[in-house]
Amino acid sequence: MSSLFPTYARWDLTIEEAEGAWVKDANGKEYLDFVSGIAVCSLGHRFGPVQKALSEQLEKVWHVSNLFGNQLQEEAASLLTKNSFADAVFFCNSGAEANEAAIKLAKKHTGKGTVVTFKQSFHGRTFAAMGATGQEKVRSGFGEMLPSFEYLPYNDEEALMELQGDHYAAIMLEVVQGEGGVIPGTAAFLKRVGEACKRLGCLLIVDEVQTGIGRTGTLFAHEGLLSPDIATSAKGLGNGFPVGAMLGTKELISSFQAGSHGSTFGGNYLAMAAVKAVLETVLGDGFLEKVRHMGEYLRRVLEKELDGHPMLEEIRGRGMMIGIVWKEPAGERIKEMRDNGLLVLPAGEHVIRLLPPINCTEEECRKAASIIKKVLGTRSKTMV
Ligand SMILES: *Cc1c(COP(=O)(O)O)cnc(C)c1O
To answer: Average pLDDT in the 311-324 region?
Structure first.
């Protein structure tokens, strides 16, 4: 019997070694990894500069707590503020925690209670983040949600325009819904989100936990589309070292005082060493341009391989976050891809989600597309 709470539907696969876009299981079988630890190891497994930064930091100091000054935290934060809308950063350890911080800050700053979020969104598993999540299956069994949330249909401009009242603290959304099915927000919808925030006098929180740090081809997915007051980051931020961040504008800074919020582990030296190395890489000359190129390339080879397939609904997403929408449940096909040496994820019942390392090669993209074609090209048992 396992000594763990059965909180995960685990695959029958254990990874023992990993490098770049490749992992090896206990039997020595190799897999091309287009899961990347769920958009975490976005620069590939054991990415050299991050490994080096962590090893060097291991020799100096690991953790002293936030009772002390922390120059590395300042440096990591300033890389984020210099390259985004934000003026200040709070470091924590996960996406849900970053969203907790965001919701707390929005409530404290506005003095209001209700947060608008969207159907099939995902914001995490802690109480506020779970409440924000627009999926009944995530919330069921846990009683009343705090604070109160209203869930609107995603990409529905009219629903936003009808929203009225002076009780809203924030509208919170993903620019591309990840867990909900790799659903990009349309430009028109996102514009309405900005307008609604102004009209309601509430803050805009963008959850960039999955989309941020280069995943969609820009440092943050909202760039050029939305002007957030708050954004949250986690997954790709430490390339495998657990870390989260909440970013906010200068207007909000005074709403968080000493004692308003905190985290024992948040922003420790190891995490900050990883974050700095990740950001220096992603913000390096030409890096994001290459990610955009690779995103388009992967999309193109997938479209070519699956062109005209009767079961293909569409291929959607942005940058290196791609969903293949299938007309029948995709779970079995994802398993077959695994058997054929490619790791991919589901997102909802019908979507095959690809989250490759954002710096993978064209050859790796072609390899993935050919395995996908091989598996999807054969008729499924349910399709007679
Ligand atoms: C994964 C995810 C979270 C939760 O992050 P954790 O680190 O698991 O707490 C929140 N929001 C989005 C959009 C995510 O994809």
So the answer is: 98
**Quick one: which atom of ligand 1 is closest to the CA of 179?**
15
**Ligand 1 centroid to residue 136 C-alpha, Å:** 17
- In this structure, the residues whose C-beta lies within 6 A of any atom of ligand 1 are 94-96, 99, 122-124, 174, 178-179, 207, 209-210, 234-235
Q: How far apart are CA 242 and CA 234, in angstroms?
A: 8
Q: Is residue 3 part of a domain?
A: no
Helix (H, G, I), strand (E, B) or coil at 360: coil
**CATH number, domain with residue 58:** 3.40.640.10
230 CA → ligand 1 middle, Å: 16
pLDDT of residue 378: 66
**Cα 125 to Cα 130: distance, rounded to the nearest angstrom:** 5
Q: Pick the atom of ligand 1 nearest to 125's CA.
A: 9
Supply the mean pLDDT for the chain.
96
Residue 376: both structure tokens together: 């999807």
Percent of the chain at pLDDT > 90 equals 96
Give residue-wise pLDDT tens across range 328-354.
999 999 999 999 999 999 999 999 999
Q: Do 311 and 246 share a structural domain? A: no
* pLDDT of the residue at 316: 98
Q: How many domains does the chain have?
A: 2
CA 298, chain centre distance (Å):
19
